[in-house]
Amino acid sequence: MRKDTIRIATYNVHKCRGLDGRVRPERIAEVLGEIDADILALQEVISAPDRRGGDDQAGFLAKEMGLKFVLGETRRRNGRPYGNLVLSRFPIRAVANYDISAPGREPRGCLRADLGVDRNTTVHVFNVHLGTSYFERRHQARRLIGSSILGHPWLNGPRIVLGDFNEWTRGLASRLLNARLKTVDVRAHLGSRRTYPGILPLLYLDHIYFDRHFEVKKLELHRTKAALVASDHLPLVAELRLLHAGDHDHHHHARWSETHRHSHAS
Q1: From the candidate CATH numbers 1.10.10.10, 3.40.50.12160, 3.60.10.10, 3.30.565.10, the one assigned to the domain spanning 5-265
Q2: pLDDT at site 55
């Protein structure tokens, strides 16, 4: 069965620590249940039971949601794997975890999960968490678009890049990704470009990029009572329509016709 529309979200869960200072993975699970996405890209997730016998956050969230999961470890936190998590309704066909750390800075990573949305289509999802320093992000952005990650020569399926970019101004990461991929017009969909912090948005840190295989049907900032306390970030949720071969031809022809008309009119 072919699935044309994919509901996808990016969400920095802040180690499941809410604004009240309590670590409550069940609150994050409640928020994820409200979103009801096909693919979830989460950042700042701990992946092993803590010393008090608490739940493995990655495993707990996957079990609660009934989704497949993979964690890309960026570092150890108190001896426990910590990093980026992808949860998926679709089969996970392949995984790669990339080290994009800058020298002298906190380890950072990009997790790629290849998801089988149907028998013939694999979507490459890149879950990214960039650093807080301007020069650090410059290093990471160049690494991200290079031939070993986004620009890998055999990576020719549909691509989605999303996560916490920690970029509150239009920096190099935004410019490089916008030059190669499309992005959601946040202001057009939400009325504002501010999405962080959830309780009083001042900045735009969470981004969703995608290539020509997709078009945006909907974008929302998931702002509910549960989401406002579960983490300092709010989930950014998009519905993307997957364009198939005939759609590509139609869109290419429409763009050519538009350009052709303008060239004659000028």
Answers
A1: 3.60.10.10
A2: 57
